Amino acid sequence: MRRHDRQPTLLRHGLGVRIAHAALALGMLVLIVSGLGMAERIPAPVVSTLGGHVWLGDVHRWLGIVSGAAAIGLVLLGPAVGRLLVRDMCRFRRREIPWFRSFARYVLAPSRHRPLPHGGRFDPGQRIVFTAMLGSFTVLVVSAAGLYLAPAGATSLLAWSLRIHIAAAVVLIAALTVHIAVGTGMLASHRTIGRVMFGDGRIRPELARALWPTWAAKQDTGSMADPTSNRRPEAPTVETDHAGATRRLDEGRAE
């Protein structure tokens, strides 16, 4: 196979991010299954196979405490990059509203349409899903604290905490369902995106430019640029020769 026939890719997520994502996904899965088992929303034989209501209750409670404490600790004591990530996940701009209509057309006919450009490393649709996930998880932690810390006689507080906890869980499960459907490549417009988190962390440049144009433009595409692309570079590059002199290369000018 000739070199220019190979499919280029861009690195979206490193190994550490993919491992952290896998651990978070596993924790969310255990919390959801144990919570559904406690609420008798899954068949009794499955609950018995998983250890019974008491066991699932203990797992749900302690894993919830650990997850809530870890989330609070990361926000308050974690590195600034974590807070910047949360900001990027929840930041919206009015000028991006038309993006949603263009994205709907792209999902329905990816071969004929492309989403409108947007700023940031996540698209507006991702940000809505992430905001729903973060917000519902926060409500789950607060309502769980109300359940476990309320006085024994505070029946009204316990009842409302339970209702809020269940409602937040429904929102979280719905947001996670959308996230899984898109993130695993179930949509034709996102067919190969599953490798970003569940593979080698890489993405095809044309898909990256369609989904995250600002992020894709910032990547070093010197050796990974799409050789079949007709797009001209936005700025010339600088190359240093063996004699130590520098010269500008205008890639748009054919020799």
Give a structural overview:
The protein starts with 9 loop residues before the first strand and ends in a 6-residue tail after the last strand. A hairpin with a 5-residue loop joins strand 3 (237-240) and strand 4 (246-249). It has ten helices and four strands. The chain is mainly α and 255 residues long. The protein has helices at residues 15-38, 44-49, 52-77, 80-90, 97-108, 124-149, 155-183, 195-198, 205-211, 213-218; strands at residues 10-11, 202-203, 237-240, 246-249. It is elongated and about 60 Å long.
Q: Tally of extended strands?
A: 4
Can you identify the CATH class? Mainly Alpha
**What is the string of SSEs from the N terminus onward?**
EHHHHHHHHEHHEE
State the share of residues found in helices, binned by percent.
55-70%
Q: Classify the fold: give the CATH topology.
A: Fumarate Reductase Cytochrome B subunit
**Strand neighbour order, sheet with most strands:** 1-2
Question: Mind telling me the CATH superfamily name?
Answer: Transmembrane di-heme cytochromes, Chain C
Q: Assign an overall shape.
A: elongated
Major sheet attributes:
2 strands, antiparallel
Counting structural domains, the number is 1
Structural class: mainly alpha
Taking pLDDT < 50 over at least 5 consecutive residues as the criterion, the unreliable ranges are 1-5, 221-255
* Radius of gyration of CA atoms, rounded to a whole number: 23 Å
Number of DSSP helical runs: 10
Approximately what portion of the residues adopt beta-strand conformation? Answer: under 5%
- CATH architecture field: Up-down Bundle
Distance between the termini: 27 Å
Instruction: Please state the average pLDDT score.
Output: 83
